[in-house]
Amino acid sequence: MSDNAKLAQEKLDQAVAILDEQGIDAWMVFVRETMLSPDPCLDLILGIDMVWQSAFIITRDNQRIAIVGHHDAENVRAVGGYTNIIPYVEGIRNPLVNTLLNLNPLQLALNYSESDAASDGLGHGLMLLLQRYLADADLVERLVSSESIIGSLRGRKSQAEVKRIREAIVATQGIFHEIGKAIKPGVNEPEIAQHAHELVGKKGLDTAWDQGFCPTVDIGPDSPVGHAGPQAQYAVKPGMLVHVDFGVKRDDYCADLQRVWYVRKDEERSVPEPVKKAFNAARRALLAGFGTIKPGIEGWRVDEVARKTLVEDGYPEYQHAFGHHLGRSAHDGATILGPRWERYGQTPYGIVEAGNVFAIELGVSVEGFGYIGLEENILVTENGAERLSEPQDELWLI
Amino acid sequence: MSDNAKLAQEKLDQAVAILDEQGIDAWMVFVRETMLSPDPCLDLILGIDMVWQSAFIITRDNQRIAIVGHHDAENVRAVGGYTNIIPYVEGIRNPLVNTLLNLNPLQLALNYSESDAASDGLGHGLMLLLQRYLADADLVERLVSSESIIGSLRGRKSQAEVKRIREAIVATQGIFHEIGKAIKPGVNEPEIAQHAHELVGKKGLDTAWDQGFCPTVDIGPDSPVGHAGPQAQYAVKPGMLVHVDFGVKRDDYCADLQRVWYVRKDEERSVPEPVKKAFNAARRALLAGFGTIKPGIEGWRVDEVARKTLVEDGYPEYQHAFGHHLGRSAHDGATILGPRWERYGQTPYGIVEAGNVFAIELGVSVEGFGYIGLEENILVTENGAERLSEPQDELWLI
Question: Which pTM was predicted?
Fold first, then answer.
C-alpha cells in the first residue's frame, strides 16, 4: 500500500472514532468534478479526483460506502478503505436514496459549514440538487453540518502527518537560511522571492501557498504588509528591516514561518533601540500566547492573551488571528486562535485538541525601519504544546 | 501589464457585455479562503487567491467592485481591472450590504449552479451566511444563479485563450509522438505513464488533470477503461491495442486528446479486421458529431448524432458525453455535448457558441484486442467548427 493510501486509511479509522465520540450515525461527503470544485476534506479520506457526482458515506458502525460514476469506481477500489463501492451510469439519485434509506441514520452529517471553509466543500447548487434527490424520502431534515467532524478529523494530526509537517518545516528553515545569505544592500523584493522559488524548485518542493505571495517579502518602512506580493521598488538599504513570510509544501503537507533580519549601517554596533524594543515585545507576546495553548482551551482565549500582552507593551493590536491550523493547507481550516470578530464566525470558539498543529504569528511595525513579524509552528500535546520549528529568539543581523 | 492581468481584463470586459446581453444588472462572485475552496470562475476575472470573505461585483453599467479583507486589497489593486476596491477589517457584512443597496440591482446573479460545477464555487455554508447578511436588507429574493453568465464567460474563449490552448495541444501531440516510440512488447502501463511524466517535467509543463490519471493507459483487452490509473499487470504484447488519454496544461490552459496504437504480430501484414472495422466506426461517429457542431445547436443534439452513428455500425453506445468544454480545466464546465441523462442535469441543453473549444471523444472496445478511443479538440467558428488538433485518421502501428 502506498504511503498516501495508508494515510487515507488512518483518517478513515479516525473518522469512525470521531462519529462515535460525537454520537452521529453517518457522515456523507457529496462532491462532483473535484478537479474544478475540490472538497478539501476529500484529500483526507480519498486523495484522488472524482468526475461525476459522488457520495462517500462513513458510518458510526464502520461502514465505508462510495457511490460513484462507473468510470471512477476502479480508482476508488485502488485507493482501498471503502468496503462497499457502488458504481452507477445514468444518475446517482436511486443508489444514493436507497443506500441512505437502508442505513436510516438519525442524523446525516454533510460537508457544508458556515464558519469553516475547510468543511464547506459542498457547492450551494449541488446542495439544491441533493435536497431534491432526498426530498421524497424524507431525508432532508436529517442533514446537519459535518464541520465538527471534519474539524476534528483535519485537526488531529496522526503521527504520519506530523512527521510530514516536520519535514516541511526543516526544508523551510533551510531555505530561510539561504535567503539570509542573499540579503544585502540593493537587493529588491522580487529578487529575494525569485531566489526562494529557485531553491524550492531545486529541491523538488512546492510553495505552501500561491507562489505569487509565497514568500511575501517586506523591505523597509514603506513596503505594504499583508498578503501582498513582492514589489521591485522596495530594495534593501542599511538601517532597514527585512521580513519574509514563507513555507514549503512537501509530500502534501505545509510549513508556514516568518523571519526577520536587520541590515546594519556601517557605523552601527548594535540594533537601534526602537527595533530591539519592538522585537522583544513581539517575541514576548508570541510566547505568552504559546504558553496558554493546551487541549480544551477555546481558540479566542489564546489570541486574547497574546493580543493583551502586545498592547500592554504599548503596541497596537495585530489585525489578524494569532493562530491557524497547519496541515495539507497553510490555512488548514477549523478552529482558529483568533479574536471574536464577525468575519471569523464560530471558528474562534473551537476547542484546541491534542494532535493539532498550529502556525502562531503576530507582528509590529517599527516606524522608519520596517515590519517585525514572527511566526512559529507548534504541536498541541496532551498537556500543553511543543515547538516544531526552531524559534527565532533574536533578530538576525546582516 | 502581465499576460495574465491582460487576460483578466479581457474577461471582465466580456462579462459586462454578457450581463447586458442577458439583461442582468449585476453579477457577484462571493468567496473565502480560495486556497482551500477555490472558485473556478475567479481564475477568469482575478487570478489570485483571497483569504477572507470577498465579494467581486460586476455591473451591467460597467462598475467593477471588490470588497475584500484589508490584507488582500493591495493584491487586488495590483491585478488591476477593479474600479472600486473596498477593504475591511472586522467583517464584510456592512460594506457588502451598503454597496448592494446603493447598486440596487433588480437581479443579482450569484456564483452557484445546480448543473454546472464550474459555476458552483459558492459553498452551501457560505451561502447560508450570505443569506443572513442580506436578509434584513430584503436582498435575498433578488439572488439568481449566474450559471448562464459564467457559462458564456468561460465558454467564449478570447483569441489569447485559444492561442494558449493551441500551444497546449501542440505540446501534447509532441509527447504523444514520443510515447509512440516507447511502446514495445514488455512495456507496462505505469512505465508508459512514467515516460509521459518525465517528458512533461522536462518541458516545464503540467499534466492537464490529476497526474495519477494523466495519462490513463489501457493495454490489451483486460485493462479496465475509464478514468482508471495505469496498472503494472498490463504489459504490451503483439496483437494488442494500446490506448492513451492524455493532455498537458501550459500557461494555465489544457489539451485533452486520446490516441491509439496497434502492436503488430510478427507475421501480420495488416491490422486484423475487427480492429480495423472498430477504428473506422469510431472515426465515422466522431466525424459525424463534429460535422453537426455549429453556433446555436443544443449540446445533446451533437451527442445524439455521434451516438446513433456508432450504434448504426453495430457498436454499443459509449457511456459518457461526446464532448466537453476545454480551457483552464480539461473539463471546463458549462454546456456538454452529452445525452440527456439525469446526472448531466441541464448541461446537455446548453447552446453551443462561437469561440467555444470542445474536446470531442468516443470509443469502442474490441474483444480480444483492447480499446479504441479517439479524442480531438475543436474550436467553434461563426459557421461551424474547426480542428485544433491534428486528428488521428488511422491506427498508429508499432
Answer: 0.85
